[in-house]
Amino acid sequence: MSSENFNSTNSERSGNNLNNNILYSHNFKKRGRTFSINLNTSYNKRDGESYTDYAEFDRIKLTDSSDRRFSDQFNSTFQTSARLSYTEPLNEKSQLQFTYNPSWSKSKSDQKTYSYDTLSESYSIFNDRLSNVFDNRTTAQNGGIAFRTGDRDNQFTAGGNYQRTKMLDPVLSPVRGFEGKKYFNGRTG
User: Fold this and answer.
1) Reported confidence tier of residue 129, pLDDT bands at 50, 70, 90
2) What does the pLDDT look like over 36-64, one tens digit per residue?
3) How far is 122 from 69, CA to CA, in rounded Å?
4) What are phi and psi of 15, to 5 degrees?
5) Three-class SS of residue 118?
6) Nearest to 156 by CA among 98, 93, 100
7) Which of 58, 160, 166, 187 has its CB 3.0 to 4.6 Å from that of 3, i.e. a possible disulfide?
8) Which H/E stretch holds residue 28?
């Protein structure tokens, strides 16, 4: 054996998840004409800390290295979305469906890692390579139209959707910066 590695990690984590869904649906007097709205929200939170000890000894190069680290972590995400749908009958077997799906989310992450300082006998040396802090916000708008026709045994659907997504993701650490992005997605099927 030319080298030996030793790893030890001790972690303590906690978290919670909260989700809900509300649906309202309405059938109009005209058969096949409907409207529905579906609202969703979710919140997730996780936090914790970990201690990692690492040591390596290379018998060929006669070198050794070690590192002791402490990481403090916090993550949270809040997301809300809606789906609005309207169907309009064209005849007994065909209908048009219009949909609109807005959504919004916010994510935060804060992970700070410190290496062990043997002089002060504490985890006090900030390790920027293993640390990050960011706050992401995303909004999306999705709309679509579909044509459906058929009966109980045979069905055909053709439609298209368009989505615009805007992401704001400032990086707060290790290097402060800001980057905004816009994405456009088109889909047919």
Assistant:
1) confident
2) 999 999 999 999 999 888 877 776 666 66
3) 10
4) -170, 165
5) coil
6) 93
7) 58
8) none
Reading the block at residue 127, the tokens are: 């390790």
The pLDDT confidence band at residue 179, using thresholds 50, 70 and 90, is very low
Query: Rounded distance, CA 56 to CA 67, Å?
Result: 9
CA distance 131 to 145: 45
> Considering the domain boundaries, does residue 2 fall inside one?
no
Query: Does residue 128 sit in helix, strand or coil?
Result: helix
pLDDT of residue 188: 42
Contacts of 183 (CB under 8 A, 6+ apart): 163, 164, 165, 166, 167
The model's confidence at residue 20, banded by pLDDT at 50, 70 and 90, is: very high
How many domains does the chain fold into? Answer: 1
Q: Is residue 59 part of a domain?
A: no
Residue type, 60: I
Element (H, E) at 70: strand 63-89
